[in-house]
Write a structure and sequence with these properties.
This protein is of the alpha+beta class. It has five domains: 77 residues, 2-Layer Sandwich (Uridine Diphospho-n-acetylenolpyruvylglucosamine Reductase, domain 2); 117 residues, 2-Layer Sandwich (Uridine Diphospho-n-acetylenolpyruvylglucosamine Reductase, domain 3), CATH 3.30.465.10; 260 residues, 3-Layer(aba) Sandwich (Vanillyl-alcohol Oxidase, Chain A, domain 3); 255 residues, no CATH class; 48 residues. The chain is built from 20 helices and 33 strands. Strands 20, 21, 22, 23, 24, 25, 26, 27, 28, 29, 30, 31, 32 and 33 form a 14-stranded antiparallel beta sheet that branches. Strands 15-12-14-13-17-18-16-19 form an eight-stranded antiparallel beta sheet. A five-stranded antiparallel beta sheet has the order 5-6-10-8-9. A hairpin with a 4-residue loop joins β26 and β27. The longest helix has 27 residues. It is elongated, with a radius of gyration of 33 Å.
């Protein structure tokens, strides 16, 4: 790199080890994340020069403004790091009430600059973070509820993007010029997706006549921390917007008699003449209006007018957002401090650490959530002064929910951040600290409380379902998509990928968690939503009992599946109706998989989301070599439920009838043909009207006749790769059905006949309908569309009666049954022949008079080939 105006440090330079440092020292262990060079750029031209050098020399690069990316995506092995931390000269424009902030400016300097003019932007809570990554990821901080996320104050930006002619170019982007789509995408999508943002212009807020007060509340074991946390969950997002609060939940410790378990801190912006008592009364509302104000501490420094350092410290409010570590300081007072103790601040310098973030699912019970958190914290205790471990909760609501940005979870009441910080990157207990974070994440996720991940607090593990899952692989596009969905939801991901394709189709700007051009998927973009002709939503919200984690729909009547087609407005078709069952009861490795024909099953609902009709697939079982064709039909007779297109969730209860009968087939076995002609068709299962009725129930509840259709994939097993469609499906729901006895007819001959026929079906289907077996469905739906009611009626009627006609399975692209390793299901012809001959010997022949069979000689003649073929197959098997 020949540009002598750019400082470049390579691996041989004396300062290389310091130059390659990032905030998370843990990631640098064993010389990992060792770039070839670090290029310190001071102008946009410097950046363009370095990017062109990388392109010409086919070198990968990473962008680093502050180095605070928790997963280290701002650096890498053998890459060139484009460091823009020296681009930090700010300019305030009083006339336009704006400030230009280069990407390398640290928040402590941003706040100090603004504080001199009694101005503010809603930045973050950590002094050493730079504006570049903060703003692009949305930016949560101590003023977010009053003024919105950091990106909500963005007026314009200068960004260097890929250019076909010149390699790279700098452009100005805002909400009205030719780059407005890129400007909008920049707000909340995360750093490094579309280019290098060299500077931002933000609108500022005046603090004239106002003051910022920081506060904290310490709640120990003896003062009901779990109850107070539940109150904060319910009330903090409803408090007045000037209060943004922040909570730490600490694990229990044996090292203190009455340790702090809940630490609530925050910022309130008030009038300068407001009294302390008035301020405290407002603060109390984030917990409870009757919370004692004496327990609220206003944290104050009183700097002199010329004390710039104190002004800087006060403006950044580090005294509030770092004082949560007081519990660990208390431990050190009472116990000898190790040679390398846990850090007393998370913002003062790089430290080894691990974080994870997520959001509360809508409709969860906050009391249960608080209990779950403290159960974990009580069981998994503090590491004392060796490491700081805790759960952070960032208050939301207020102006955050009104933001015009790509922050997908803006409607939530708060966000979670699990944190572990320590001082020694080679600490022998590193894995214990990581496990503490991971197990808490998994615990809350498996209990149904959480979803997603905040792009500014990334955790590659957020897509793992268990500690034994493989680590995230950015080279796997499926895993990358899964991770991106955690950040943006499918609703926003489609839009962002369109912008990525437009401005960076060659993936010049690519890192381990960035958007990537060329990713394939049926992503539901906001543009598509507007074209979908009238989705309104809201039915799910009409009753709090309808919501997850345990939707209770019993207040809704079970409605006839065909009686309300005139109410249908919208639908989702099941493009991949897939189910699984165990072929040998009790042996999980025997699990089998099959997909029914596509786009037969559907769920129909109103524009508000109330479900009025569900069409279910049907199936036939046919063994050509034996000449048996059995139909099995699962008919949805009634239902109740809701769909939410925005959250891509649904909940429904289904009433189901399962039936089995012989299909009239020209290639039928001669013995079966004889029975079809001779036996009473009003008694035996030769049509749907006299079919064998297989009784089913909810799993573990024999009296539960309605089956819940619930969001997501079944948790009974991990689907094989060939049965996963999250990259292309709009959503997925699951259903479990347990098999019980058949309905008896009170005619012992018919019942014996039906029992054997069911046994034959179970041979054909590898015990699909074996008593106590469980059928587990994953139903993958394509994108919502508008219902044509007449077409729906015809479709429903056709498939309700389709198996009365002479064919096997429904037409369409279904699959044959196969095991999870892909091997096809093998059917035993011998076992079926044995059962057919058993039918002859034990049912038909002994009762031929009662059955009205006059030509018994013909019966015996037709049955004998069954016996001969059984003997022949057995003889071959013995050879």
């Amino acid at each position: 790199m020949k540009n002598t105006l750019i400082t470049v440090i390579d691996k041989k330079a004396p300062g290389y080890q310091d130059a390659r440092k990032i905030s998370n020292l843990l990631l640098l262990n064993n010389n990992k994340l060792s770039p070839d060079k670090i290029a310190y750029c001071e102008t946009s031209d410097d950046v363009i020069y370095v990017l062109n050098y990388c392109q010409q020399n086919k070198k990968s690069f990473r962008i680093r403004s502050g180095g605070h990316h928790h997963e280290g995506a701002c650096t890498g092995d053998n890459v060139i790091v484009v460091d823009i931390s020296r681009m930090d000269k700010m300019v305030i424009n009083k006339a336009t009430s704006t400030i230009i902030i280069p990407s390398g400016a640290k928040l402590e300097n941003v706040y100090a600059k603004l504080n001199e003019q009694e101005l503010l932007i809603p930045g973050g809570g950590c002094d050493s973070v730079t504006i570049g990554g903060l703003a692009q990821g949305g930016g949560w901080g101590p003023y977010s509820r009053l003024y919105g996320m950091t990106c909500d104050s963005l007026v314009s930006a200068q960004i260097i993007i890929a250019d076909d002619e010149s390699g790279f170019k700098k452009v100005e982007i805002n909400a009205t010029n030719d780059y407005k789509d890129l400007f909008n995408a920049l707000k909340g999508s995360g750093g490094g997706n579309f280019g290098v943002v060299t500077s931002f212009t933000f609108k500022t807020q005046s603090l004239i006549g106002l003051k910022k007060e920081s506060f904290d509340i310490k709640i120990s074991n003896g003062r009901e921390p779990e109850k107070r946390l539940e109150q904060w969950f319910k009330n903090a997002s409803k408090a007045i917007n000037p209060i943004t609060s922040f909570v730490r939940v600490y694990p229990d410790t044996d090292e203190l008699k009455d340790p702090i378990r809940l630490y609530i801190s925050g910022i309130i912006v008030v009038k300068k003449n407001d009294t302390d008592q008035a301020i405290k009364k407002q603060i109390a509302t984030i917990i409870d209006k009757d919370f004692p104000t004496k327990d609220i501490n206003l944290i104050r420094n009183t700097p002199s007018s010329n004390d710039k350092n104190n002004k800087k410290k006060l403006s950044s409010l580090e005294n509030s957002f770092s004082s949560h570590l007081a519990i660990y300081d208390a431990i050190k007072v009472q116990k000898d401090t190790p040679a390398i103790a846990a850090p007393t601040s998370t913002c003062d310098a790089p430290h080894p650490h691990k974080i994870s973030s997520f959001f509360p699912k809508k409709g969860i019970d906050y009391a249960s959530l608080a209990t779950a958190i403290f159960e974990y914290m009580n069981k998994n205790k503090s590491f004392g002064s060796k490491a700081n471990t805790y759960l952070s909760l960032h208050g939301m609501g207020g102006k955050i929910k009104d933001g015009d940005n790509f922050f997908y979870y803006k409607d939530r009441d708060f966000m979670f951040q699990i944190q572990a910080w320590w001082s020694n990157p080679t600490d022998p207990d590193n894995d214990k600290y990581l496990t503490w974070v991971e197990n808490l994440r998994l615990d809350l996720s498996k209990k149904g409380f959480t979803e997603g991940c905040f792009v500014n607090f990334p955790d590659y593990n957020c897509i793992r379902k268990s500690p034994k899952s493989e680590k995230y692989n950015a080279e796997n596009d499926g895993e990358r998509i899964e991770l991106l969905i955690q950040f943006y939801g499918k609703r926003y991901l489609g839009d962002l990928l369109q912008v990525k394709q437009k401005y960076d189709r060659n993936n010049s700007f690519l890192h381990e968690m960035s958007l990537k051009s060329g990713l394939k998927g049926n992503f539901f973009s906001s543009e598509l939503k507007l074209q979908n002709n009238g989705w309104i939503g809201g039915f799910e919200e009409s009753n709090p009992e309808f919501k997850y984690p345990k939707p209770n729909l019993t207040s809704l009547p079970i409605l006839d599946n065909m009686a309300n087609i005139d109410k249908l407005q919208r639908q989702m078709k099941a493009e991949w109706p897939e189910f699984s069952w165990i072929t040998i009861l009790g042996v999980q490795k025997s699990r089998c998989f099959q997909m029914f024909a596509t786009n037969i099953s559907r769920i129909g609902y109103t524009a508000e989301g109330r479900v009025y009709s569900i069409i279910c697939p049907q199936q036939g079982a046919y063994l050509k070599s034996v000449g048996i064709n059995l139909n099995v039909e699962v008919t949805v007779t009634g239902q109740r439920g809701w769909v939410n297109e925005d959250s891509r969730e649904m909940a429904a209860d289904l009433g189901v009838v399962g039936k089995i009968w012989f299909s009239p087939d020209n290639n039928a076995n001669p013995f079966i043909k004889f029975l079809l002609n001779e036996l009473d068709k009003t008694k035996f299962p030769f049509s749907k009207a006299t079919a064998i009725q297989v009784n089913t129930s909810r799993v573990g509840d024999a009296k539960g006749i309605y089956f819940p259709l619930l969001r997501g994939e079944t948790d009974r097993f991990k689907s094989p790769d060939f049965a996963k469609h999250e990259n292309v499906a709009f959503t997925v729901a699951n259903l479990d059905v347990q098999i019980n006895d058949i309905t008896l007819t009170k005619d012992p001959i018919v019942d014996k006949f039906n029992t054997i026929i069911l046994g034959i079906f179970n041979i054909l289907s590898a015990n699909m309908l074996k008593k106590t077996n469980v059928l587990s469905w994953n139903i993958w739906f394509n994108k919502p569309s508008v219902v044509d009611q007449e077409e729906w009626r015809k479709h429903a009627e056709y498939w309700r009666h389709s198996l009365d006609v002479n064919h096997c399975s429904p037409d369409g692209d279904g699959t044959d049954a196969k095991y999870f390793d892909g091997k096809p299901l093998q059917i035993s012809k011998l076992e079926i022949l044995i059962e057919l001959y058993k039918l002859y010997k034990e049912v038909i022949k002994p009762n031929y008079v009662a059955l009205g069979i006059k030509n018994v000689s013909k019966l015996n003649e037709i049955a004998e080939p069954l016996n001969q073929e059984i003997k022949a197959i057995k003889a071959i098997q013995k050879q």
